[in-house]
């Protein structure tokens, strides 16, 4: 029999992000993107997996019924005051369970590597801010860091809709109300929760995931009515985020929705996480501040992803940060390798990356020379 408690305790002690329970394997822990087996544990049998299933559901009949009907379940659990995000699915008629460990202490903005412009944009009174990226890119952590900062610095009512609730926020300067979406949760689906938020007198609405047109419609309506809406999307870039939002709609509706997105969308941050030269994870941010140029591109009859990417890359003055700029800076600062940087972009952009690296190196050399001259002047009393 598998001792789930000991597995979770070990996962917490070695700062693992996830624990995998899969029949035919030892329990596996993910640490900085690497999957490592718990050597002292036995191989998990099919019978063991049903025991692990019972451990996480803890007799919740509604969740059990939902899983048996839908063959998939997302829920939350707790272990020694650590919140767990649990995903259950089937493989060969046997449960497969992956659990994410959610620590109580949120990393700071500096620790995460989130650009300061993202924090500043949350001071706006209304509009739409999106945190995007692929699975396991740190979207939830960044979103909760934004919530925590607002909670500590602004007097607002923050309503969150999450599936499941990960970080539990305590009301500080703001009021924070968190609702879990899904079977046995506080709301059956995101779109219902978003629509109901208009009656809950919140200032800021946080949507854990915008995954369909109905939810996006409700988010836009909420932003239009004078609220600040924060949400996440599973997209790999800022430009792709715009494309995905527009393609939620039929072609006949796209012209009108482009104007709404252009006027309501304030900022998109697209995240990637890669292992750095020290073996830990580093955030690679792409940030798009929606200015007049970006708004104009969005409103065009034919959306050009390349045009948006070029506008981001050349708009550093307004706080936007191109992906190539982020990669070049991380390489110049000796955090990632050149091969890692090149692997994150298309072949056609390699030359742009090389030029950007050269420019940053020249700039860094000049700054070092000025700093050295300043130190020498101070030393000799000039």
- Beta-strand segment tally: 13
Share of helix, binned: 40-55%
What does the radius of gyration come to? 23 Å
Coarse structural class: alpha/beta
Largest sheet: 7 strands, mixed
Q: List the total number of helices.
A: 15
Poorly predicted runs: none
Report the span from N to C terminus: 75 Å
Taken as a percent bin, the fraction of beta residues is 15-25%
Give your account of this protein's structure:
With 382 residues, the chain is of the alpha/beta class. It is built from 15 helices and 13 strands. It has helices at residues 4-13, 46-57, 61-70, 109-112, 116-121, 139-153, 190-197, 213-224, 238-247, 251-264, 292-299, 305-313, 323-332, 338-343, 350-380, and strands spanning 18-21, 28-31, 34-37, 72-79, 82-91, 94-102, 127-133, 157-162, 175-180, 204-207, 228-233, 265-275, 281-289. It has a seven-stranded mixed β-sheet, with helices on both faces. α10 runs antiparallel to α11 (292-299) and α13 packs across α15. The longest helix has 31 residues, at 350-380. The radius of gyration is 23 Å and the shape is globular.
């Amino acid at each position: 029999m598998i001792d789930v408690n000991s597995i979770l305790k070990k996962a917490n002690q070695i700062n693992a992000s996830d624990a995998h329970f899969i029949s035919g394997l030892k329990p596996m822990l993910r640490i900085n993107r690497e999957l490592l087996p718990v050597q002292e544990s036995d191989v998990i049998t099919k019978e063991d997996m049903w025991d692990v299933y019972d451990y996480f559901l803890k007799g919740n009949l509604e969740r059990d019924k939902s899983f048996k009907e839908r063959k998939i379940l997302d829920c939350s659990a707790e272990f020694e005051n650590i919140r767990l995000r649990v995903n259950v699915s089937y493989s060969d008629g046997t449960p497969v369970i992956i659990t994410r460990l959610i620590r109580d202490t949120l990393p700071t903005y500096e620790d995460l590597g989130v650009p300061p412009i993202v924090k500043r944009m949350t001071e706006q009174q209304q509009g739409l801010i999106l945190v995007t990226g692929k699975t396991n890119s740190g979207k939830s952590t960044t979103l909760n860091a934004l919530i925590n900062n607002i909670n500590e610095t602004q007097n607002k009512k923050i309503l969150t809709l999450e599936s499941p609730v990960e970080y539990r926020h305590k009301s500080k300067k703001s009021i924070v109300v968190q609702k879990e979406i899904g079977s046995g949760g506080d709301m059956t689906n995101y779109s219902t929760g978003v629509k109901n938020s208009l009656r809950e007198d919140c200032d800021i609405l946080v949507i854990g995931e915008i995954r369909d047109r109905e939810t996006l419609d409700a988010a836009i309506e909420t932003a239009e009515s004078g609220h600040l809406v924060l949400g996440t999307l599973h997209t790999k870039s800022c430009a792709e985020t715009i494309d995905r939002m527009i393609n939620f709609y039929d072609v006949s509706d796209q012209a009108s929705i482009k104007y709404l997105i252009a006027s309501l969308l304030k900022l998109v941050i697209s995240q990637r996480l890669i292992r750095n030269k020290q073996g830990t994870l580093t955030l690679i941010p792409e940030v798009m501040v929606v200015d007049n140029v970006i708004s104009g591109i969005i409103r065009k009859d034919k959306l050009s992803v390349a045009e948006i990417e070029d506008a981001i890359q050349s708009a550093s003055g307004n706080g936007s940060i191109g992906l190539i700029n982020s990669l070049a800076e991380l390489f110049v600062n000796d955090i990632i390798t050149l091969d890692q940087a090149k692997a994150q972009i298309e072949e056609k952009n390699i030359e742009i990356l090389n030029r950007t690296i050269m420019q940053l190196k020249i700039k860094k050399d000049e700054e070092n020379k000025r700093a050295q001259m300043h130190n020498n002047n101070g030393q000799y009393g000039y």
